[in-house]
Design brief:
Blueprint: H1 2-23, E1 27-28, E2 31-32, E3 34-35, E4 41-42, H2 49-65, H3 97-112, H4 115-131, E5 158-159, E6 163-164, E7 166-167, H5 169-186, H6 189-205, E8 220-221, H7 249-261, H8 266-282, H9 284-287, H10 304-316, H11 324-339, E9 340-341, E10 351-355, E11 358-361, H12 363-380, H13 386-396, H14 416-432, E12 442-446, E13 450-455, H15 469-472, E14 477-481, E15 486-492, E16 499-501, E17 504-505, E18 514-519, E19 525-531, E20 536-539
Antiparallel strand pairs: 1-2, 3-4, 5-6, 7-8, 9-10, 10-11, 12-15, 13-14, 14-20, 15-19, 16-17, 16-20, 18-19
Helix pairs in contact: 2-14, 3-4, 3-5, 3-14, 5-6, 5-7, 6-7, 6-8, 7-8, 10-11, 10-12, 11-12, 12-13, 12-14
């Protein structure tokens, strides 16, 4: 009897222990993996992506904004590319660190109306302009250096691998484009002047391009004009692999924006844009040779960011790419073939590796892939990517810790991947499918730069707004844009009682100037505003 009792107790213990182990969940980066009833991954914070994504965006921004300062008095992110909680990381900034942040903050400001976001964008632009440009009298003048070779100097003067005096022209194009955006937000002529100078240098150096040489090199010494060797070791010392990168759509759009503004050397911009556009169509879009992007890699590498950045540009500018539907699908499929990571396939998701030379999944690259595939599906009706695209965005939320720290999986909290090159992908996904945004008042997208965004309860800022104190009681959202013609997509808690443009009520109509409203099952709905003769909008 005793033996039977011991045996039963032993079986009970084993069974209970088995249940405990079965209940334990696999931890992904910071959090145990959460799933739906079908076993597919959902976001860590809340199973509703709208709530989870919004939550993560806010804590990510707060972490960035409140990051500690370095011994030189600058915020930590102005000196380093990786966050370390216990000591200062010995590496300088990432090559696209500031431009990525400016790109995200432009969207996040419209989404929140937080003036700190807009001011941080200005700070990044102004500090970089005054501490990071090549001399006006060199062969590649007035373009930004992508690295601070002396970490605490507060000066950006070279490249992480190739040393002092070396710049990355593709990153200069990105900065120039973000300066145009900043100019449109702030109406600051100095931003526009600097963007013109960057564009002038790039346009003067654009070549026709071949299968092995892109129209602009990946790295160049601004003083000698020579293309810098990409590698810094003995592996392929004789091979110049820094003459090629396909990350040229930001430069292309910089030229187009200045042409539209009728500012700068328009003839040179048209010629440069034509060469870049022709080369993209003839080479990488056809052969998927997208090449390097990252500053810390010392050899040739295929990168997902280059291919998918071009794919999104094609989707957003189909007028330049008549065959964009089939070509973008080819790029998406190439990205899957080249960078798929099925480690979490049992949770219903295939995620995305960073690049060929570092085949590790990244939260930035996975969220980019997801957001871009959602856009492709919404534009074409091809839903084959939808489920995995959404789950990629869900998967990438696990990189965000409770405090807003954002860690590259199996690596470190990179201030490029986890911030500027992360936030924008979720905001873009919300703009594609508004039900991915919470049932609150948020501007999701605009065809123009949002200069001012004031949400209910936040009208009393340090400047005066464009309506009276009495009117403010009725106002839910006020915003002002750069262009007097444009369209906005806005998530609202409920249907507005009135929409006014420059104090003139708009009609609810699907045609011409006006607005349309679509209710969503999850609550609230989406407002589309179409402006033709004004840039000040009041939603009551």
């Amino acid at each position: 009897m005793i033996r039977k009792l011991i045996c039963l107790l032993s079986l009970f213990f084993v069974f209970s222990l088995g249940n405990i182990f079965a209940q334990q969940k696999e931890v992904l980066i910071y959090h145990p993996i959460q799933t739906d009833n079908s076993g597919n991954i959902v976001p860590w914070f809340n199973p509703d992506p709208a709530i989870a994504y919004d939550h993560d965006l806010h804590i990510i921004w707060n972490f960035w904004f409140n990051m500690r300062r370095d011994p030189n008095g600058l915020p930590y992110y102005m000196n380093h590319q990786v966050f370390n909680p216990n000591m200062d990381d010995p590496r300088g900034i990432g090559g696209d660190q500031f431009m990525m942040a400016m790109s995200s903050w432009q969207l996040y400001y419209a989404y929140t109306g937080d003036e700190n976001v807009k001011n941080n964008l200005y700070f990044l632009a102004e500090y970089y302009l005054t501490h990071g440009l090549s001399p006006a009298n060199c062969k590649w003048p007035d373009i930004p250096f992508p690295y601070n070779t002396l970490i605490y100097s507060g000066i950006y003067d070279g490249d992480m691998r190739s040393g002092k005096g070396v710049a990355q022209p593709d990153k200069a194009g990105s900065f120039g484009l973000e300066l145009v955006h900043a100019y449109k937000i702030k109406n600051e002529p100095l931003f526009l002047d600097a963007a013109i100078k960057i564009a002038n240098t790039l346009a003067a150096n654009v070549k026709t391009g071949t299968a092995t040489h892109s129209p602009l090199p990946f790295k160049v010494n601004v003083f000698t004009g020579k293309t810098a060797l990409l590698q810094d070791d003995e592996i392929i010392k004789s091979k110049d692999t820094a003459c090629y990168t396909s990350n040229l759509t930001p430069t292309l759009q910089l030229f187009f924006d200045l042409i539209q503004l009728k500012k700068g050397n328009l003839t040179a911009y048209k010629t440069g844009a034509s060469k870049i556009l022709t080369w993209l169509k003839k080479y990488p879009i056809q052969n998927n040779r997208w090449g390097p992007f990252f500053e810390d890699v010392g050899a040739w590498s295929q990168t997902q960011i280059n291919g998918m950045t071009c794919a999104r540009y094609m989707m957003e500018h189909p007028q330049y790419f008549p065959e964009w539907k089939t070509q973008v699908k080819s790029i998406i499929n190439w990205a899957h073939t080249s960078f798929n990571n099925d480690k979490w396939k049992k949770y219903g998701v295939i995620v995305t590796n960073e690049q060929s030379i570092y085949p590790v999944p990244g939260e930035s690259h996975t969220s980019r892939q997801g957001a871009d595939e959602l856009l492709y599906g919404s534009l074409t009706g091809d839903t084959s990517y939808y489920n995995n695209a959404l789950r990629q965005l869900n998967w990438a939320t696990y990189a965000v810790d409770f405090d807003g720290k954002n860690c590259f999986p199996f690596d470190e909290p990179w201030l490029t991947d986890g911030y500027g090159d992360y936030v924008r992908h979720y905001l873009r996904a919300m703009a594609t499918y508004p039900y991915l945004a919470p049932a609150e008042d948020h501007i999701l997208s605009s065809t123009s730069a949002i200069q001012q965004a004031d949400y209910k309860g936040h009208f009393h800022k340090y400047y005066s707004v464009d309506f009276t104190e009495a009117d403010s009681n009725k106002v839910r959202l006020y915003y002002r844009t750069f262009d007097t013609t444009g369209n906005e997509e806005i998530r609202l808690k409920s249907k507005p009682t009135a929409v006014l443009v420059n104090d003139k009520p708009l009609k609810e109509t699907v045609n011409d100037e006006g607005y349309t409203w679509t209710a969503l099952e999850k609550g609230g709905g989406v407002l589309w505003v179409r402006r033709k003769n004004g840039n000040r909008v009041i939603i009551e």
